[in-house]
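Rotation project, supervised by the postdoc (A.L.). Task for the rotation student: set up a whole-complex structure prediction and record inputs and outputs verbatim in this book. Inputs entered:
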Amino acid sequence: MACEKTDFLIVGGGLAGLSLAVELESRAVEFRIVDAPDWPGACQACAGVVNPVTGMRHVLSWKSEQLLEALLTFFKRWEGRTGKQYLRSVPLFTSLQSVFDENQWMLRSGDPVYQDYIGRTVRTGLFENCSMEDQRFGQVHRAFRLDVSTWLKDVREWLRLQSRWVDDKFSADELICTPNTLQWKDMRIEKGIAFAEGIRVLENPYFGWLPMNPLKGDALVISCPGLHLQAMIKSGHALVPLGGEQYWCGSSFVLGDRSQHPDPEFMMKIDAWLKEHLKSPFEILEQKTGVRPASRDRRPVLGPHPGDSRLLVFNGLGTKGVSLAPYCARTLADFLTTGTPIPHSMSVGRFDRWIVPLPHQNQGTGKLS
Ligand SMILES: Cc1cc2nc3c(=O)[nH]c(=O)nc-3n(C[C@H](O)[C@H](O)[C@H](O)COP(=O)(O)OP(=O)(O)OC[C@H]3O[C@@H](n4cnc5c(N)ncnc54)[C@H](O)[C@@H]3O)c2cc1C
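Outputs recorded:
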């Protein structure tokens, strides 16, 4: 049988894999992408929020300026191409739950580094159908929301139309990996395979040694016609307008849990939280569950395997896949197309004390020896 040829194969069509696909296509690089239709990734539970100010101390996130620049450039280009808007600037209010919290906020608001990000504090009148009036909130500037589900659907469709998309599970058992050949099923891969598998990287025989901390999250999608909320609110849980009468509400953070089953206890907790805070009746439409692929140091993990530069990884997007994916895709594509080194803080090499030697080069067994 004649072999199909490609330069790169991307494994995984979540936020990481699709961002890399869009980036490679813009550089006229030849690739295919394989994604397992019945293995839901973290992306299908994702709220799409981009919040540059995070944590109890309201600090700017890692590389916030560079990440925002890459995010805005990436979506400007994509939206220019499709004529549709996926990324929107949405006001974000985060509750200041203690005097310490308020003081931290005030401290940041006087810092010139934070002036583009930290806004006023507000107490009442903002959220007319939410009973949160007795709390103080701080406004985060430069916050955005990506319509993740529409973006995933549209990019996958675009890749299908170009015959680059393969609906299948990639298994290393079906990979022939010798010094001269990389072949998966009837596809000959000339340059490399980029694994963008989310938390399933832990099952990958080449990169399963990466120190990952799976972080499971549950969330609800509700309908609440009376709410009319235009902003994203964080107060214990987050409430995010999805458009129309629908809102995303979540989420939980369960470290070390890789199960994809929805958590019934979370459902009850969040239902109680919603009943306490919403003045209008609501209906639960869907419970979503995903496992965030967080690395041990909460930074992305990019680049080639130290033992075989044809095998690459794109992972570690953790809780911030939307903010990180375009910047990381650009960094990895620069490495693949121009050899620009990957900064140490994002590289596979920083985890070299965990490395497990590669499975012996094989003729299709993919097994560790
Ligand atoms: C409840 C929840 C809320 C979140 N909210 C936000 C948010 O508001 N903002 C934000 O920035 N981030 C958020 N995140 C995090 C975000 O979803 C992740 O960072 C992001 O989805 C990670 O992208 P990824 O492509 O690395 O992995 P995934 O999204 O998990 O995608 C991996 C893909 O690879 C495929 N795959 C895996 N193995 C194989 C294989 N062997 N063969 C074929 N296909 C394979 C899977 O089917 C999947 O499609 C949230 C996550 C959760 C769970």
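Student's summary: The pocket of flavin-adenine dinucleotide is lined by residues 11-17, 34-36, 39, 41-43, 45-49, 169-170, 196-198, 200, 217, 219, 250-251, 290, 292-293, 315, 317-323 (CB under 6 Å).
Supervisor addendum: Confidence is low (pLDDT under 50) at residues 364-369.
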